Amino acid sequence: KFIAYVIYSIVISAVVYPISGHWIWNTSGWLHKLGFHDFAGGTAVHLVGGLSALIGAKLVGARIGKYSKNGKSHAIPGHNITLGALGIFILWFGWFGFNGSSTLSITGDAAIIKVGGILVATNLSAAAAATMAMVITWVRYGKADISMTLNGALAGLVAITAGSDQVSPIGAVIIGIIAGFVVVFGIEIIDNKFKIDDPVGAFSVHGLCGALGTILTGLLSVEKGAFYVKGGIKFFGTQCLGVVTIGIYVIIVMNIVFRIIDKVVGLRVATDVEIAGLDLKEHGLVSGYVDVVNTKGDVFERPVAEVDVADNIEIDASQYKADGKIRKVVVIMNQNRFESLKEALDKIDITGMTVSNVSGCGIQKGSTEYYRGSEFESHLLPKVKVEIVISTVPLGLLVETIKRAIYTGKIGDGKIFVYDVENVIKVRTNEEGRAALE
Known about the structure:
It is a single chain. The chain has 438 residues and is of the alpha+beta class. It is built from 14 helices and six strands. A hairpin with a 2-residue loop joins strand 3 (370-371) and strand 4.
């Protein structure tokens, strides 16, 4: 519920963050006195927020349709990957200010050099994590998952936050590479093993990578890290202690906060509200995604991608003869072959057709596709249905043209259904039969 989100935001901002921030950053804070190092908030900001998100997601529960009765996770793709990518790049750019400005002042040559090193480390970690996430998903799912790659960039930014002022460029790359692994497998484990519906991977990105970066600072800090300085193992232990204690603090406090909110106003909306959409029910908008829904709430059919147009399809039409019968041919096919089919049909003088976007699959359940490590519903694969009625065009010519236009040799190419039509009536002129089609 929106009111629950508002209350939670007030409490975490006014109470939870300030307390953990005081422990870490204030000179009188107990973790600060121990030598705990969190330069820009890997633990103070990201671990706290990520753990809070995990607890909230667990108590709110999964979205309708996210898990089947046997617990299998189903993919629910985001609405606009382009806007998501834009958001990540805005964050990436903003992180230079987030980390660099944590020096509090840039006065003198020494400060300028230090900030330069921070910016380099920030960028290297993000780039390394994004690349690693892309490679991992490419290997695991057979395709480079764009959504997970973007999460990888954010994971690298989070992971470098704690130690960006103390690690070398090589150390930053190492942190980014490890963060790339952590974010991909973290999201999979949270989703598939713990059955917690975390739609954007907030805990894996912020919670796990915030903790990871803080702990790795204990090893890779060129000033105090265990890999660089004799006696650095004590500093590493302090980093681990800080992460564990902050984690315990957040788990206890946020469990209490969320459960109180749940008792007072409720965390989750009613089922009918979720189905209708929170944009509509909570904010009075038909949809925040105006390209998907019109003002009546009806879902628009998304345009079929104009890709993969077939090569010239040459068929000897002379070997086919029309028998004068009226037939309806229905094609269920992959979306990305539609332009190829349309071009091929135009060559045999078929211009009239009805096209619909549908979902479904055949007996083979379709090929398995993944989104963020979760399988798409096998029986809800996006398809295009094309309906054509013919009388003068030979049926064999039409069928052969369709087969050549949509064929790829892979599971899911589609099927062609042929029906005999008893009669056709043209409403405007009341003509029937073949005359109604001309």
